[in-house]
Protein backbone atom coordinates (compact mmCIF):
# COMPACT_ATOMS: atom_id res chain seq x y z
CA UNK A 1 0.00 0.00 0.00
CA UNK A 2 2.77 2.36 1.00
CA UNK A 3 4.65 1.45 -2.19
CA UNK A 4 1.66 2.33 -4.37
CA UNK A 5 1.22 5.66 -2.65
CA UNK A 6 4.90 6.47 -3.27
CA UNK A 7 4.63 5.46 -6.94
CA UNK A 8 1.55 7.64 -7.40
CA UNK A 9 3.33 10.51 -5.76
CA UNK A 10 6.37 10.05 -8.03
CA UNK A 11 4.16 9.90 -11.10
CA UNK A 12 2.25 13.02 -10.09
CA UNK A 13 5.46 14.84 -9.31
CA UNK A 14 6.96 13.79 -12.67
CA UNK A 15 3.81 15.03 -14.42
CA UNK A 16 4.06 18.31 -12.58
CA UNK A 17 7.74 18.72 -13.59
CA UNK A 18 6.91 18.14 -17.25
CA UNK A 19 3.89 20.41 -17.16
CA UNK A 20 5.79 23.17 -15.42
CA UNK A 21 8.67 22.90 -17.90
CA UNK A 22 6.16 23.25 -20.71
CA UNK A 23 4.55 26.30 -19.09
CA UNK A 24 7.98 27.86 -18.59
CA UNK A 25 8.83 27.26 -22.22
CA UNK A 26 5.62 28.93 -23.39
CA UNK A 27 6.14 31.79 -20.95
CA UNK A 28 9.70 32.42 -22.11
CA UNK A 29 8.53 32.35 -25.69
CA UNK A 30 6.18 35.17 -24.69
CA UNK A 31 3.00 33.29 -25.52
CA UNK A 32 1.50 33.11 -22.04
CA UNK A 33 1.56 35.00 -18.78
CA UNK A 34 1.23 33.04 -15.55
CA UNK A 35 -0.35 34.56 -12.46
CA UNK A 36 -0.17 32.50 -9.28
CA UNK A 37 -1.13 33.44 -5.72
CA UNK A 38 1.86 33.76 -3.36
CA UNK A 39 0.71 30.87 -1.15
CA UNK A 40 0.25 28.53 -4.11
CA UNK A 41 3.62 29.51 -5.57
CA UNK A 42 5.31 28.70 -2.27
CA UNK A 43 3.64 25.30 -2.16
CA UNK A 44 4.66 24.49 -5.74
CA UNK A 45 8.22 25.60 -5.05
CA UNK A 46 8.39 23.37 -1.97
CA UNK A 47 7.03 20.44 -3.91
CA UNK A 48 9.42 20.96 -6.83
CA UNK A 49 12.32 21.06 -4.43
CA UNK A 50 11.59 17.59 -3.06
CA UNK A 51 13.92 14.89 -4.47
CA UNK A 52 13.54 13.69 -8.06
CA UNK A 53 12.35 10.10 -8.39
CA UNK A 54 14.57 8.84 -11.22
CA UNK A 55 18.29 8.48 -11.68
CA UNK A 56 20.35 9.20 -14.81
CA UNK A 57 21.04 6.12 -16.89
CA UNK A 58 22.44 5.37 -20.31
CA UNK A 59 20.11 2.38 -20.61
CA UNK A 60 16.79 3.10 -22.32
CA UNK A 61 13.88 1.90 -20.19
CA UNK A 62 10.98 2.42 -22.59
CA UNK A 63 9.15 -0.20 -24.66
CA UNK A 64 10.50 -1.56 -27.92
CA UNK A 65 10.80 0.98 -30.73
CA UNK A 66 8.41 0.85 -33.68
CA UNK A 67 10.85 0.65 -36.58
CA UNK A 68 14.21 -1.08 -36.74
CA UNK A 69 17.00 -1.29 -39.24
CA UNK A 70 18.55 -4.72 -39.62
CA UNK A 71 21.63 -5.18 -37.48
CA UNK A 72 24.88 -4.82 -39.43
CA UNK A 73 26.87 -7.88 -40.27
CA UNK A 74 30.29 -7.60 -38.66
CA UNK A 75 31.91 -6.91 -42.04
CA UNK A 76 29.62 -3.87 -42.37
CA UNK A 77 30.44 -2.46 -38.97
CA UNK A 78 31.50 1.16 -39.12
CA UNK A 79 35.09 1.65 -38.03
CA UNK A 80 35.52 2.96 -34.49
CA UNK A 81 38.23 5.61 -34.38
CA UNK A 82 38.40 9.00 -32.67
CA UNK A 83 35.99 11.73 -33.75
CA UNK A 84 39.03 13.93 -34.38
CA UNK A 85 40.34 11.40 -36.87
CA UNK A 86 36.96 11.32 -38.60
CA UNK A 87 36.99 15.14 -38.71
CA UNK A 88 40.42 15.04 -40.37
CA UNK A 89 39.15 12.54 -42.91
CA UNK A 90 36.16 14.78 -43.61
CA UNK A 91 38.43 17.79 -44.06
CA UNK A 92 40.31 15.93 -46.77
CA UNK A 93 37.23 14.60 -48.54
CA UNK A 94 36.80 15.40 -52.24
CA UNK A 95 34.27 12.65 -52.98
CA UNK A 96 31.61 14.99 -54.38
CA UNK A 97 31.27 18.41 -55.99
CA UNK A 98 30.48 20.10 -52.67
CA UNK A 99 34.23 19.96 -51.98
CA UNK A 100 34.69 22.61 -54.68
CA UNK A 101 32.12 25.06 -53.30
CA UNK A 102 32.56 24.68 -49.54
CA UNK A 103 34.55 27.15 -47.45
CA UNK A 104 35.07 24.71 -44.57
CA UNK A 105 33.92 21.22 -43.79
CA UNK A 106 31.52 20.92 -40.84
CA UNK A 107 32.19 17.54 -39.25
CA UNK A 108 30.12 18.13 -36.11
CA UNK A 109 30.94 19.17 -32.61
CA UNK A 110 30.70 17.73 -29.11
CA UNK A 111 32.27 15.38 -26.59
CA UNK A 112 33.61 11.86 -27.24
CA UNK A 113 30.96 10.17 -25.07
CA UNK A 114 27.71 12.10 -25.40
CA UNK A 115 24.43 10.79 -24.11
CA UNK A 116 22.66 12.66 -26.90
CA UNK A 117 23.56 13.16 -30.51
CA UNK A 118 21.56 15.57 -32.70
CA UNK A 119 21.61 15.12 -36.45
CA UNK A 120 20.59 17.93 -38.78
CA UNK A 121 20.51 18.20 -42.55
CA UNK A 122 23.54 20.09 -43.83
CA UNK A 123 25.62 23.16 -42.98
CA UNK A 124 24.24 26.55 -43.99
CA UNK A 125 26.12 29.73 -44.79
CA UNK A 126 27.27 30.54 -41.25
CA UNK A 127 28.23 26.93 -40.51
CA UNK A 128 30.25 26.84 -43.74
CA UNK A 129 32.07 30.01 -42.65
CA UNK A 130 32.82 28.82 -39.10
CA UNK A 131 33.21 25.08 -39.64
CA UNK A 132 30.75 24.45 -36.79
CA UNK A 133 27.24 22.97 -36.86
CA UNK A 134 24.11 24.95 -36.05
CA UNK A 135 25.65 28.34 -35.40
CA UNK A 136 23.16 30.38 -37.43
CA UNK A 137 19.59 31.40 -36.55
CA UNK A 138 18.22 27.88 -36.31
CA UNK A 139 21.28 27.00 -34.24
CA UNK A 140 20.37 29.69 -31.73
CA UNK A 141 16.96 28.10 -31.34
CA UNK A 142 18.49 24.63 -31.00
CA UNK A 143 20.85 25.94 -28.32
CA UNK A 144 17.97 27.45 -26.37
CA UNK A 145 16.04 24.20 -26.63
CA UNK A 146 19.02 22.22 -25.33
CA UNK A 147 19.46 24.64 -22.44
CA UNK A 148 15.76 24.55 -21.60
CA UNK A 149 16.16 20.81 -21.20
CA UNK A 150 18.80 21.40 -18.56
CA UNK A 151 21.64 20.36 -20.89
CA UNK A 152 24.41 22.37 -22.48
CA UNK A 153 25.71 22.34 -26.02
CA UNK A 154 29.05 21.13 -24.66
CA UNK A 155 27.55 17.86 -23.43
CA UNK A 156 25.73 16.87 -26.62
CA UNK A 157 27.15 16.03 -30.03
CA UNK A 158 25.70 17.92 -32.98
CA UNK A 159 26.28 16.72 -36.53
CA UNK A 160 24.63 16.72 -39.93
CA UNK A 161 23.85 14.24 -42.67
CA UNK A 162 26.13 16.25 -45.01
CA UNK A 163 29.44 17.65 -43.88
CA UNK A 164 29.64 20.33 -46.58
CA UNK A 165 27.23 23.12 -47.46
CA UNK A 166 25.08 22.61 -50.55
CA UNK A 167 25.24 25.87 -52.56
CA UNK A 168 22.36 28.20 -51.74
CA UNK A 169 21.34 25.88 -48.90
CA UNK A 170 19.45 23.63 -51.31
CA UNK A 171 18.29 20.22 -50.10
CA UNK A 172 21.06 17.58 -50.28
CA UNK A 173 20.71 15.24 -53.24
CA UNK A 174 20.41 11.53 -52.53
CA UNK A 175 23.81 10.96 -54.18
CA UNK A 176 25.41 13.51 -51.86
CA UNK A 177 23.74 11.86 -48.89
CA UNK A 178 24.92 8.39 -49.87
CA UNK A 179 28.44 9.64 -50.54
CA UNK A 180 28.67 11.37 -47.17
CA UNK A 181 26.89 8.65 -45.18
CA UNK A 182 29.98 6.65 -44.12
CA UNK A 183 31.25 9.64 -42.15
CA UNK A 184 28.05 9.80 -40.13
CA UNK A 185 28.04 6.03 -39.65
CA UNK A 186 31.59 6.17 -38.33
CA UNK A 187 30.73 9.07 -36.04
CA UNK A 188 27.77 7.21 -34.53
CA UNK A 189 29.80 4.01 -34.10
CA UNK A 190 32.58 5.96 -32.41
CA UNK A 191 30.45 8.19 -30.19
CA UNK A 192 27.97 5.45 -29.28
CA UNK A 193 25.35 7.90 -27.97
CA UNK A 194 22.52 6.62 -25.77
CA UNK A 195 19.94 8.42 -27.95
CA UNK A 196 19.93 9.99 -31.42
CA UNK A 197 17.67 12.93 -32.27
CA UNK A 198 17.08 13.64 -35.94
CA UNK A 199 16.08 17.19 -36.81
CA UNK A 200 13.72 17.44 -39.77
CA UNK A 201 12.69 15.15 -42.60
CA UNK A 202 16.03 14.96 -44.42
CA UNK A 203 17.90 13.86 -41.30
CA UNK A 204 15.25 11.29 -40.44
CA UNK A 205 15.04 9.84 -43.94
CA UNK A 206 18.77 10.09 -44.53
CA UNK A 207 19.69 8.26 -41.34
CA UNK A 208 17.02 5.57 -41.35
CA UNK A 209 16.66 5.22 -45.13
CA UNK A 210 12.88 5.48 -44.90
CA UNK A 211 10.39 7.76 -46.60
CA UNK A 212 8.02 8.43 -43.71
CA UNK A 213 7.22 12.16 -43.56
CA UNK A 214 8.51 13.92 -40.48
CA UNK A 215 4.98 14.96 -39.51
CA UNK A 216 4.11 11.26 -39.08
CA UNK A 217 7.42 9.98 -37.70
CA UNK A 218 8.05 12.68 -35.10
CA UNK A 219 7.42 11.78 -31.49
CA UNK A 220 7.70 8.04 -32.24
CA UNK A 221 10.74 6.02 -31.21
CA UNK A 222 12.71 4.47 -34.06
CA UNK A 223 16.02 2.59 -33.95
CA UNK A 224 19.31 2.91 -35.76
CA UNK A 225 21.54 -0.11 -35.19
CA UNK A 226 20.23 -0.64 -31.68
CA UNK A 227 20.29 3.05 -30.74
CA UNK A 228 16.93 4.69 -30.00
CA UNK A 229 16.16 7.51 -32.43
CA UNK A 230 13.67 10.29 -31.78
CA UNK A 231 12.73 12.23 -34.89
CA UNK A 232 11.55 15.78 -34.36
CA UNK A 233 11.13 18.96 -36.39
CA UNK A 234 14.08 20.93 -37.71
CA UNK A 235 14.74 24.18 -35.80
CA UNK A 236 14.42 26.23 -38.99
CA UNK A 237 10.87 24.88 -39.36
CA UNK A 238 10.23 25.83 -35.75
CA UNK A 239 11.37 29.39 -36.47
CA UNK A 240 8.46 29.69 -38.89
CA UNK A 241 5.90 27.46 -37.17
CA UNK A 242 5.51 28.38 -33.55
CA UNK A 243 2.79 25.80 -32.92
CA UNK A 244 5.14 22.98 -33.86
CA UNK A 245 7.40 23.94 -30.94
CA UNK A 246 4.91 22.36 -28.59
CA UNK A 247 5.31 19.01 -30.41
CA UNK A 248 9.07 19.31 -30.41
CA UNK A 249 9.10 20.11 -26.72
CA UNK A 250 7.09 16.96 -26.04
CA UNK A 251 9.45 14.93 -28.25
CA UNK A 252 12.40 16.27 -26.32
CA UNK A 253 10.78 15.46 -23.00
CA UNK A 254 10.57 11.85 -24.20
CA UNK A 255 14.26 11.99 -25.06
CA UNK A 256 15.14 13.44 -21.68
CA UNK A 257 13.08 10.77 -19.95
CA UNK A 258 14.88 8.09 -21.93
CA UNK A 259 18.25 9.21 -20.62
CA UNK A 260 16.82 9.40 -17.11
CA UNK A 261 16.80 13.16 -16.82
CA UNK A 262 14.18 15.82 -16.23
CA UNK A 263 13.91 19.43 -17.28
CA UNK A 264 15.31 21.60 -14.51
CA UNK A 265 12.97 23.18 -12.01
CA UNK A 266 12.84 26.88 -12.85
CA UNK A 267 13.74 29.28 -10.04
CA UNK A 268 10.51 31.02 -10.39
CA UNK A 269 7.77 28.68 -11.47
CA UNK A 270 4.75 30.80 -10.89
CA UNK A 271 5.76 34.38 -11.51
CA UNK A 272 4.41 36.81 -14.01
CA UNK A 273 6.45 37.90 -16.97
N1 LIG B 1 20.77 23.42 -40.54
C1 LIG B 1 21.24 22.18 -40.43
O1 LIG B 1 20.56 21.22 -40.74
N2 LIG B 1 22.45 22.01 -39.98
C2 LIG B 1 23.23 23.02 -39.60
O2 LIG B 1 24.34 22.78 -39.17
C3 LIG B 1 22.70 24.32 -39.70
C4 LIG B 1 21.47 24.50 -40.17
What Rg do the Cα atoms give? Answer: 20 Å
How many domains, in number, for the residues? 2
Strand content: 5-15%
Q: Write the CATH fold name of the largest domain.
A: Uracil-DNA Glycosylase, subunit E
Which parts are unreliable, with pLDDT below 50 for 5 consecutive residues or more?
Answer: 51-75, 267-273
Mean pLDDT: 83
Describe this structure in words.
- This protein has 273 residues and is an alpha/beta fold.
- The chain has two domains: 2-49; 83-271, Uracil-DNA Glycosylase, subunit E (3-Layer(aba) Sandwich).
- 44% of the residues lie in helices and 8% in strands.
- It has eleven helices and five strands.
- The protein has helices at 2-28, 38-49, 83-91, 98-101, 125-130, 137-148, 174-191, 201-208, 214-217, 235-240, 244-258, and strands spanning 116-120, 157-160, 195-199, 222-224, 227-232.
- Strands 2-1-3-5-4 form a five-stranded mixed sheet, with helices on both faces.
- Helix 3 (83-91) runs antiparallel to helix 7.
- Bound molecules: uracil.
- Uracil is lined by residues 120-124, 127, 133-134, 136, 138-139, 160.
Amino acid sequence: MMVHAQNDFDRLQALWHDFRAYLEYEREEGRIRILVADKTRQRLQDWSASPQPRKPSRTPANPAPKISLPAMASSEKAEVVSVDQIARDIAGCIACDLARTRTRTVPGHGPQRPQLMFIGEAPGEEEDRQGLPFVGRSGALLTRMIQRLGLSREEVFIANILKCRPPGNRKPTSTEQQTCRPFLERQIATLSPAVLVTLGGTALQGLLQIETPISRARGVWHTYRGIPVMPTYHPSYLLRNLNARFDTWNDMLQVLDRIGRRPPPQNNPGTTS
